[in-house]
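Worked example

This section walks through a single chain of length 109. The input is the sequence exactly as stored; nothing has been trimmed or padded.
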Amino acid sequence: FQQAVHESRDVQSLNNLAWMYFYEEENDDKALELIREVVKLNPSSYFPYNILGDIYMKQEKWTEAKEALQKSISIQPSDEAYHNVAVAHYNLGELEKASEFFLRVAGDS
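Given that input, the structure is written out below as tokens.
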């Protein structure tokens, strides 16, 4: 799979490889490198911003996580992104905003 990505460098392959590095291999640095490339190649897709937000959350980079997840939400809202952006707001001490996003997820359930 890595060889196929190396040869083609298409967005879907890079995105899949970044997902694999982050969720399966737990290699945050490599996943971050690849997902940043995906965002540059296809900034209108929401999914890479979700992965980017997850990476930043794991690294406790709450401001960066919040920004990535808000970008994802602006492209295609999802309960997962709303929940994660709420967690980022909470960890930044922005309790009112965190509550707003948590309630949005609860309201959709």
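What to look for: The mean pLDDT is 91.
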